[in-house]
C-alpha cells in the first residue's frame, strides 16, 4: 500500500513539473514527448488533484486559468486512453449529467450548422447586415449562460463539499471569459470592425469547444465518481430554477436516490431548519434586522404577529401591536383600504400591491404581499417598507468586479 501511495505522489510531482514547464513557455509537444510515460492513462481525478495542489502551493488561480486549454491539450491523448479502459460513462436520461451532455450537443449543432457557415459568408453580404446576422446567432448562443450557471451554482458547490475546490474556481473564470466573448459579438461596440468581430467570434467558438471537452472528459466523470445519490437529486430538483440551454430536460429518468424533502422545522431551541439551510435563531434575528427594509407580518386571522427592528425604521412600531387586529393599527380613514387589500389577498384576486409617498426628503416605497403555502392557501400578509431615496438617485454602474 505504501509503495502505491509513493507511486501516486511521484506521478503527481512529475505532472506538476509538466504544467510548470508549460507556464515557463515550453510547448505542448515538448512536454508531451518528455513526459509521455508519466501522463499515460491519466485520470480526471489526478488532473484535478494536480491543479488543486499547484494552487495550494501558491500558483495563482488566474495563471492556471490562463493556460487551462493548454493543460487539457497536454492530457487529451492520455484522457482518451483512460476513458477507453474505464469503459463508457453514460448517465440516464433526466440525470443532470445527461442534460449537460445533451446541451453540449445542441451548442455544437448551433456552432457547426449555423455560426461556422455564417462566418464563411463574411465577404458575401453587406457589412452591417452581416454584423446583425452574427449578433443574432450569438444571441442564441448566449443560452449557454444557463448551462454555465447550473454548473457553477449547483455542481460546483457539491464538488467543493468533497474538497474539490481548485478546478471549479479555474473553470468558473474561463466560463466568464467565454461569456465576455459572446457579449462582444452579440452586442458589439460601435467602433468594432468586421475583422475584429469575426476574430472574436472564432475565439469564442474555440473556447466553447475546449470547455465542452473539459466538461465531458474531466469534470463530469469526476463528478459522477464523487457526488452522492442525494446530491444528484438535489441538483436535479433545483435545476429548473436556473433553466436549460437549447434543450428540454427529459422528464423520465431513473431514480437518482431518496427524495430529500426537508420541511422547515425547529431543530432545537436555538436552530431553525429551512429547505435551503439552517440558521441559529440569534443569527436569523440579526439577518432580519439588518435588511434595509421594515418587515411586518399579519397572519391569516388578521393578527399582527411579527415586525423586524431595522436600524432606520420609517414607521414606528412597538411590541404593543403584537396580537392586535391589523385594522386597529391604522387610522379610521384608511381602514377600508386595508380591509379591501386583505380581502383581495384572501380571495386570490391579488398577490401584491404597491404604494409610494414622500415624507419630507424621504421617498418611501410600501409593498404588500400575499403569503401562501405550496398549495396556494393564504397564510397572511407581509408589509415591506423601504426608503428608496438613495436608489432612485443611482446613475451609471458600479460593478462587483472592477479593475
Description:
By secondary structure, this protein is an alpha+beta fold. It has 3 domains: 85 residues; 147 residues, Four Helix Bundle (Hemerythrin (Met), subunit A); 101 residues, PAS domain (Beta-Lactamase), CATH 3.30.450.20. 56% of the residues lie in helices and 13% in strands. The chain has 15 helices and 8 strands. The strands form 2 sheets. Strands 5-4-8-7-6 form a 5-stranded antiparallel sheet. A hairpin with a 2-residue loop joins strand 2 and strand 3. Helix 8 packs antiparallel against helix 10. The N terminus is likely disordered.
List keywords for this structure.
single chain, 403 residues, alpha+beta, Four Helix Bundle (Hemerythrin (Met), subunit A), Beta-Lactamase, 5-stranded antiparallel β-sheet, 3-stranded antiparallel β-sheet
Could you name the CATH homologous superfamily of the largest domain?
A: nmb1532 protein domain like
Beta-strand portion reads 5-15%
Number of domains: 3
Instruction: Quickly give the structural class.
Output: alpha+beta
Count of beta strands: 8
The coarse overall form would be globular
CATH topology of the largest domain: Four Helix Bundle (Hemerythrin (Met), subunit A)
CATH class type of the largest domain: Mainly Alpha
For the report, how would you describe the main beta sheet?
5 strands, antiparallel
Oligomeric organization of the protein chains: single chain
- Within the largest sheet, what's the order of strands? 5-4-8-7-6
* Count of helical regions: 15
Radius of gyration: 28 Å
Architecture of the largest domain in CATH?
Answer: Up-down Bundle
Helix content: 55-70%
Q: Uncertain regions: pLDDT < 50 for 5+ in a row?
A: 1-6, 252-261
The SSE order reads HHHHHHHHHHHHEEEHEEHEEEH
Amino acid at each position: 500500500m505504501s509503495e502505491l501511495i509513493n507511486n501516486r505522489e511521484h506521478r503527481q510531482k512529475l505532472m506538476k513539473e509538466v504544467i510548470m514547464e508549460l507556464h515557463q513557455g515550453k510547448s505542448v509537444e515538448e512536454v508531451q514527448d518528455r513526459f509521455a510515460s508519466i501522463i499515460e492513462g491519466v485520470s480526471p481525478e489526478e488532473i484535478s488533484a494536480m491543479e488543486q495542489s499547484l494552487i495550494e502551493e501558491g500558483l495563482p488561480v488566474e495563471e492556471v486559468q490562463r493556460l487551462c486549454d493548454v493543460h487539457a491539450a497536454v492530457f487529451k491523448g492520455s484522457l482518451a486512453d483512460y476513458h477507453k479502459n474505464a469503459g463508457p460513462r453514460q448517465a440516464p436520461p433526466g440525470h443532470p449529467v445527461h442534460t449537460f451532455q445533451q446541451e453540449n450537443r445542441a451548442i455544437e449543432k448551433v456552432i457547426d450548422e449555423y455560426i461556422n457557415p455564417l462566418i464563411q459568408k463574411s465577404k458575401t453580404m453587406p457589412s452591417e447586415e452581416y454584423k446583425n446576422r452574427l449578433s443574432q446567432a450569438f444571441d442564441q448562443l448566449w443560452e449557454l449562460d444557463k448551462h454555465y450557471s447550473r454548473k457553477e451554482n449547483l455542481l460546483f458547490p457539491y464538488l467543493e463539499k468533497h474538497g474539490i475546490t481548485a478546478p471549479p474556481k479555474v473553470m468558473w473564470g474561463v466560463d466568464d471569459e467565454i461569456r465576455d466573448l459572446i457579449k462582444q459579438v452579440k452586442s458589439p461596440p460601435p467602433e468594432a470592425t468586421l475583422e475584429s468581430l469575426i476574430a472574436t467570434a472564432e475565439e469564442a467558438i474555440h473556447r466553447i469547444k475546449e470547455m465542452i471537452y473539459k466538461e465531458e472528459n474531466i469534470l463530469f466523470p469526476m463528478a459522477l465518481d464523487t457526488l452522492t445519490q442525494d446530491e444528484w437529486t438535489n441538483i436535479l430538483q433545483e435545476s429548473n430554477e436556473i433553466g436549460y440551454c437549447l434543450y428540454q430536460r427529459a422528464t423520465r429518468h431513473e431514480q437518482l436516490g431518496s427524495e430529500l424533502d426537508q420541511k422547515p422545522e425547529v431543530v432545537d431551541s436555538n436552530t431553525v431548519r429551512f429547505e435551503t439551510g439552517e440558521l441559529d435563531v440569534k443569527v436569523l434575528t440579526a439577518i432580519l434586522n439588518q435588511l434595509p427594509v421594515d418587515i411586518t407580518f399579519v397572519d391569516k386571522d388578521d393578527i399582527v404577529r411579527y415586525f423586524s427592528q431595522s436600524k432606520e425604521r420609517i414607521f414606528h412600531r412597538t411590541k404593543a401591536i403584537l396580537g392586535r387586529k391589523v385594522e386597529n393599527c391604522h387610522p379610521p380613514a384608511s381602514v377600508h383600504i386595508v380591509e379591501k387589500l386583505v380581502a383581495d389577498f384572501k380571495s386570490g384576486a391579488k398577490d401584491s400591491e404597491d404604494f409610494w409617498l414622500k415624507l419630507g426628503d424621504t421617498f418611501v416605497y410600501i409593498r404588500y404581499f400575499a403569503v401562501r403555502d405550496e398549495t396556494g392557501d393564504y397564510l397572511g400578509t407581509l408589509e415591506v417598507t423601504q426608503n428608496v431615496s438613495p436608489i432612485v438617485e443611482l446613475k451609471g454602474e458600479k460593478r462587483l468586479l472592477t479593475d
